[in-house]
């Protein structure tokens, strides 16, 4: 396990303010892997932990991941995906995120799981960080592209890092369409999540992501609607926030109520103003 710091990046990016919170807070409402994105609830009665594991298998399936493949996870969070792909699929993985706290956590988990030899991370912004040489067999972005202003640059860079035939997986929350963005982008709930929680974020309609992928030269392979899965995921997170509110507030006073408001705002719009999609593309030439 190695961690490289991108010295060109600002020490603490605006988009980091949420992810730089004390990592113990995330351990108090996420699943044990600390996966901070939608689960996959396609069998009745799944727990949050089971749904997150099912989601990781879903991603591997969409990527056609095989043992020894090289995978780059952009916005790797607490390493749920890279650690899982290294452990379960024997993939050689690189994670990148600007949030300093996440890298030490991932290094510790990689050592505990015995996969440190095939897991590395880069601290920085995907847009301009120095990355290990390609080509990669797969590039993934789960819940991170919303924090990147220049879609065209991001998708061109993702494509340039892939081998021919390599796959690019993005799952992201989207406005239901351009009209919903025009109507709701500046509403108070959206501004609260954008500024008070994350510092910066730009949710788009799926059509913007598809257009940017096409313009970057990708072939679009599949689109899955994961809206109900994310609603269930957030419901499960809210149950955990409520159950652990005192412990969360002991670490950061008032944080349980802030988190609850964020999660409630996020869950209020599904199907009406917002959707959650998994988009899979291929570098076919
Ligand atoms: C919602 S979290 C998702 C984490 C992880 N993908 C998961 O599913 O658990 C978004 C992640 O994107 C990272 N991020 C934000 N801006 C980024 C950028 N410009 N380049 C790379 N990662 C970024 C954050 O630090 C955070 O780790």
Structure write-up:
With 285 residues, this protein is an alpha/beta fold. It has one domain: 3-Layer(aba) Sandwich (Rossmann fold). Helices cover 43% and strands 21% of the residues. It contains eleven helices and nine strands. The chain has helices at 23-27, 48-63, 80-89, 100-113, 151-161, 178-184, 188-198, 206-215, 227-243, 245-251, 255-268; strands at 2-5, 70-74, 92-97, 119-123, 136-142, 162-175, 204-205, 219-225, 274-282. Strands 1, 2, 3, 4, 5, 6, 7, 8 and 9 form a nine-stranded mixed beta sheet that branches. Strand 5 (136-142), helix 5 and strand 6 form a beta-alpha-beta unit. The protein is globular, with a radius of gyration of 18 Å. The relative contact order is 0.17. The structure holds S-adenosylmethionine. Residues 15-16, 19, 35-37, 74-77, 80, 96-99, 102, 125-127, 142-144, 147-148 line the site of S-adenosylmethionine.
Short descriptors:
9-stranded mixed sheet, about 280 residues, methyltransferase, methyltransferase activity, alpha/beta, about 20% strand, binds S-adenosylmethionine, 9 strands, 11 helices, disordered N terminus
The CATH class, by name, is: Alpha Beta
Task: Kindly name the structural category.
Answer: alpha/beta
The chain-level mean pLDDT equals: 91
Strand content: 15-25%
Note poorly predicted spans: 3-13
CATH-level-2 architecture: 3-Layer(aba) Sandwich
- Count helical runs: 11
- For the secondary structure, the number of strands is 9
Oligomer: single chain
Radius of gyration: 18 Å
Largest sheet: 9 strands, mixed
What is the ordering of alpha helices and beta strands? EHHEHEHEEHEHHEHEHHHE
> How is the CATH topology named?
Rossmann fold
How many domains? The number is 1
Distance between the termini: 32 Å
Helix content: 40-55%
Shape: globular
What small molecules accompany the polymer chains?
Answer: S-adenosylmethionine
